[in-house]
Amino acid sequence: MSSTTTVTTTKVETPFTTGALQQDTAFWRAYIASRPAPSEDFFRVIQEHHNTHGNGQTSLAHDVGTGPGNIAERLLKYYDHVVGSDVNAQALDAAGDLIAPDLVSRLTLVRSPAETLADNNTVPPNVGLGKTDLLVVSECIPLLDVPRALNAFHQLLRPGGTLAIYFYGRPIFTTGDAVRDDRLNALYDRIATRICTFLLPFKGTPGFPHHQRAAEALASQLDNIALPSAEWGDVVRYKWNPDVPLLFNSLEGYDFEPEPVDRREKGETTKEIVDRKWWRDEWDADRVKEYLDSVYPSYVEKAGSKIAEVNEGVEELREALGGGKASVTFPVVLILASKK
Ligand SMILES: C[S@@+](CC[C@H](N)C(=O)[O-])C[C@H]1O[C@@H](n2cnc3c(N)ncnc32)[C@H](O)[C@@H]1O
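Above: the input entities. Below: the structure tokens describing the complete assembly.
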């Protein structure tokens, strides 16, 4: 009798969990350059909430999923000291390389998953449990096991400390000419959706639960994140440009259908604001391409010869942009809450 052995792959492949683990400072420098930079007004919204609903103290902030520290650096303007934590050691090394030495002296970098930040002095005690005034989760929450992570965040914050979770999605072209905008936005969506199909299959792979969790969060505009009223107060959910999906591509790019989930509690406030000048920037076709390269870090090798379709799409976009730049804004969701 003969027997056969089936070798199955158990590798979990997801962007920004496994996808960016081996990347060096050059990758993270390009990452920062390719991403939208939150406006100073955005940080003022967070501070305003912290001053009016929280304890208003500005001794210590913690930036979870800090990557190369791009947001930790911004927080140093408002806080005396900032902790930046991440699972990715290379990203933390890049933060040390990219942030100016005079600022690094006010930064503590901690390698840890968000979910275990409150365990066994993972964070040094002087900046650890019960010491954090503001805890920020920037462009990272869909990657986390949220109930476990929230439990850790609650332990890190002081009473009256503020939790700020946010996520931005695709660029929205806003030239003032509706017909032109529709065309530019459709061209972006076509390229992004095609790129997502290169990453398939998601369903049936070890990484599927991660993809499903991330897609559910974005399809839900983060309303799937429950902030139980026994632990969190003054919950405000800002949604800028909520008429545009937070997903980076259309549902046709997936091989499953993410279901929106709403776990908002009674007493929370949701503020929907259509503001096509929010985080405004001017992007050309190359800038869009850089953004896509950063959102889908490993797509080029997976695309093989089909990469030509992406290049053609980018050239079509370039032509529609007349070879130049156009204004872009973003859908952004920010959840603010105070630790009780
Ligand atoms: C898209 S980057 C965001 C970087 C930066 N916060 C920003 O706003 O640009 C996502 C980051 O989350 C980190 N990450 C992924 N899973 C994580 C986890 N379970 N705990 C902590 N960080 C995690 C990744 O290593 C990566 O640096």
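Note for the figure: The pocket of S-adenosylmethionine is lined by residues 16-17, 35, 65-67, 70-71, 86-88, 91, 113-115, 138-140, 143-144 (CB under 6 Å).
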